[in-house]
Design a protein that fits this description.
alpha/beta
């Protein structure tokens, strides 16, 4: 098998975990009804919370997480590969993981991925984010075999670190997942170009479910969930409202793109030569 149907579920997650689970479930069911075999939800599917005290009063360990339990049962009921973009999982008294789960059609967890790159930025709009104050960064890239192709698992801010995607593609991933909660400001500036660049650089499909709109906690996310083919063409895109997008994917398109531009085979070692006063100063320091 090389062909399957993929879907992105776009959400506007709030602070009520039960309500968020219900909203996600309704759209997951809608995607399954459209014939999707692989369904992806965004980063922070079950809770969008920036206040540390409120977050840690709500989140629990993986074995006790109500969202993960419900989504595992739902994957088994629908017989689909269900990729939960991420959940906030307690891993210590005052520490969490921003963790993705790829759930097989029997409800088993096929892969886990803890977000590697932390979004610690001060935006020109005045928005300030310090993910590292809450989340422990992961240290492992993760790829998992689906029936049709190998999937590389990443989350949101990882998108800006091209080496991660090149490593996943060179490890055989033909589809790269980038579930996200991009801010409105950075999304307008960079979302599409970075997504298309990762597809073109690696000759891979990109599937990126997103959060969209104005959230209960005051955050404004960009939306525009995307499915992109290995030649960099957008084949499905959402707006800002919650909903689903679907696209048919043929993994043979990865082989075709990589044969046309075999850049994954052309890496060469190199050294950096710095000239001028600035280079001399750095060498002397």
């Amino acid at each position: 098998m090389t062909s399957f149907r993929a879907a992105c579920v776009q959400l506007r997650t709030g602070r009520d975990v039960a309500a968020n689970i219900a909203a996600a479930e309704a759209l997951i069911r809608a995607a399954a009804g459209e014939g999707a075999h692989y369904i992806q939800t965004p980063e922070q599917t079950a809770l969008m919370e920036l206040e540390r005290k409120v977050l840690f009063a709500t989140i629990v360990a993986e074995d006790d997480d109500p969202a993960l339990k419900r989504f595992r049962a739902l994957a088994a009921e629908l017989g689909v590969w269900l990729h939960i973009g991420s959940l906030a999982i307690r891993i210590g008294e005052q520490q969490a993981a921003n963790r993705a789960f790829v759930i097989a059609p029997d409800g088993a967890i096929a892969a886990r991925y803890d977000k590697v790159h932390m979004f610690d930025v001060d935006l020109p709009s005045g928005e300030r984010y310090r993910e590292s104050a809450i989340y422990a960064p992961g240290s492992k890239a993760v790829a998992v075999d689906l029936p049709w192709l190998r999937l590389g698992v990443t989350i949101c801010y990882d998108l800006r670190f091209a080496a991660l995607y090149r490593s996943l593609a060179k490890a055989g991933a033909g589809m790269l997942a980038i579930p996200a909660a991009f801010t409105q400001v950075t999304g307008e500036a960079h979302w599409h170009v970075l997504q298309r660049a990762r597809a073109i650089e690696t000759g891979s499909f990109i599937v990126s479910a997103a959060q969209g709109g104005h959230h209960e906690n005051g955050r404004h996310t960009y939306g525009h969930s995307l499915i992109i083919d290995p030649w960099g063409r957008v084949v499905a895109e959402a707006g800002q409202e919650p909903g689903i997008i679907v696209a048919d994917i043929d993994s043979a398109a990865c082989d075709e793109a990589r044969a046309r531009i075999p850049a994954l085979q052309h890496d060469r070692a190199f050294t950096l030569e710095e000239t001028g006063a600035a280079g001399a100063a750095r060498r002397a320091s």
